[in-house]
Amino acid sequence: MIENMNGMLKKAKQGKYGVGAFNFNEFTDLKALVHAAAENSAPVILMASGGTVKFFGIKEIVHAYRCLAEDAGAACALHLDHCKDLELLQTCVNAGFTSVMIDASTKPFDENAEITKRVVEIAHGKGVSVEAELGTVAGREEDIVGGEAEYINPGKVGEFIEKTGIDALAVGIGTVHGFYKQEPHIRFDLIEEIAGLTDTPLVMHGGTGLSVEDFQRAIRCGISKVNVGTELKFSFSSRLCEIAKEKGPEGDPRDFMRAVYEGSKTIAAGKMKIFGCAGKA
Ligand code: 13P
Hints:
The protein is an alpha/beta fold. The chain has eleven helices and eleven strands. It has helices spanning 6-15, 27-39, 50-56, 58-69, 86-95, 109-124, 157-164, 188-195, 212-221, 230-247, 253-275, and strands at 19-23, 44-48, 76-83, 99-102, 129-134, 138-141, 144-145, 168-171, 176-177, 202-204, 223-228. Helix 2 (27-39) packs across helix 11 (253-275). The radius of gyration is 18 Å and the shape is globular. Bound molecules: 1,3-dihydroxyacetonephosphate (13P). The site of 1,3-dihydroxyacetonephosphate has 15 residues, from strand 3, strand 11 and helix 10.
């Protein structure tokens, strides 16, 4: 089913589970994510980064999403991840993305709120949900360079949500994009405090490398959307390498893509069970 994030995140918040939000790179892994959702009766958020949008194409992504999601029997949202470019964001909204993230988190608070408010006006007119970020997620992911992690200031949350009208808030709580180079110091207390301050669903970025216990504790504390990207990307490339080693250039191209498909589907299905969204579509 074609949906934005609002219905699924509201239900997740009420039901105290997390919805998996997964980055895809091209058609095969996108298909695997939708099939994982269908087979596990789980809602899913399909996330395209700026890099994926450039490589795959906006129109192509939207058409692929629609044809896969329409018959999936599970709620599927198409989300533009970490966008700083308002022109690109507007194009994606017009083309049929059902959700967007504006990331102005490295700007001063007032500027972040101002830009985010503009995006909400653009997106809500088309029924598109909006995520924004307070505090910063460190690490590097494609063209997103987070710099130093900055923990969210709970004192600013109410004002930010009121000023902007966003639908979901990404919280800087110590998680990092990409593989963890050291143990993350996740501020579960901050998640709990912020969840007590607002009804707006909270988002945790940087899911790759976190333990089952970390995921489930974050969800118990109040996270409703959980982002995973690098683990899927790594699986995509390593599955190709494995088949290449086994079969060489004589290998059937479909064997390569089948391996990618199975890898992505297995990871997404596993996360849906960990996050508690399996059976909640
Ligand atoms: P990871 O790549 O660390 O899993 O983070 C994904 C993410 O937060 C995308 O916004």
